[in-house]
């Protein structure tokens, strides 16, 4: 559990949405994390974590991945062990991208999309994408390391983008 002095240490970002209507193609949303160094905190990510990948040091992992939104509870879950990240990494931005296989889809086309950020049993944030309904991707959370104390700080950072999943990662630093 964190305190105001220690910052956040280990968080979980969860994503859920309702399955597409019967007879329509499945909606596939993906959680993406972009990690930045102090040398380039708003430019190109040092690395991205998304479906089928994890951070090189194992501190950011996608623990659950869905391609349909079916099931109970969260459809996607990503764990970020910020307290274990190397000191060179000073910023992590988490976002959500909608796969665009069968035509352009926005958050307004998806039934009941939402994300949560949790530290242990404490909910730090919850959001329903209502402010970015015309977007195909959105950043949702930002974690920054305090230069003096080294503690990680969290803020909700919802910003919509009109980008496919492949180009979204390169845009996340400007959020």
Secondary-structure blueprint:
Layout: E1 10-16, E2 29-37, E3 47-49, E4 60-64, E5 76-81, E6 89-98, E7 114-119, E8 122-127, E9 137-145, E10 152-161, H1 165-171
Outline the structure in words.
With 175 residues, the protein is mostly beta strands. The chain is built from one helix and ten strands. The strands form two sheets. The protein has a five-stranded antiparallel β-sheet, with no helix packed on it. It has a five-stranded antiparallel β-sheet with strand order 3-2-6-9-10, covered by helices on one side. The longest helix has 7 residues, at 165-171. It is globular and about 55 Å long. It starts with 9 loop residues before the first strand and ends with a helix.
Extract low-pLDDT stretches.
none
CA distance, first residue to last residue: 27 Å
Write down the overall geometry.
globular
Task: Summarize the biggest pleated sheet.
Answer: 5 strands, antiparallel
Mean pLDDT score, rounded? Answer: 87
Write a brief structural summary.
This protein has 175 residues and is mainly beta.
Question: What labels would you give this structure?
Answer:
175 residues; mainly beta; five-stranded antiparallel sheet; 10 strands
């Amino acid at each position: 559990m964190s305190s105001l002095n220690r910052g956040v240490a280990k968080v979980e970002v969860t994503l859920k949405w309702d399955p597409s209507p019967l007879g329509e193609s499945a909606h596939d949303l993906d959680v993406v994390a972009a990690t930045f160094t102090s040398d380039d905190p708003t430019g190109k990510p040092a690395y991205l974590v998304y479906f089928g990948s994890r951070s090189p040091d194992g501190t950011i992992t996608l623990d659950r991945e869905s391609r349909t939104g079916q099931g109970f509870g969260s459809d996607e879950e990503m764990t970020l062990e910020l307290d274990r990240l190397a000191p060179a990494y000073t910023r992590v931005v988490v976002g959500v991208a909608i796969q665009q296989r069968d035509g352009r889809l926005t958050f307004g086309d998806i039934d009941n999309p939402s994300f949560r950020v949790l530290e242990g049993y404490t909910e730090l944030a919850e959001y329903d994408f209502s402010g970015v309904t015309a977007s195909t991707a959105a950043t949702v959370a930002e974690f920054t390391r305090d230069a003096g104390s080294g503690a990680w700080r969290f803020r909700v950072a919802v910003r919509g983008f009109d980008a496919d999943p492949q180009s979204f990662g390169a845009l996340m630093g400007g959020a």
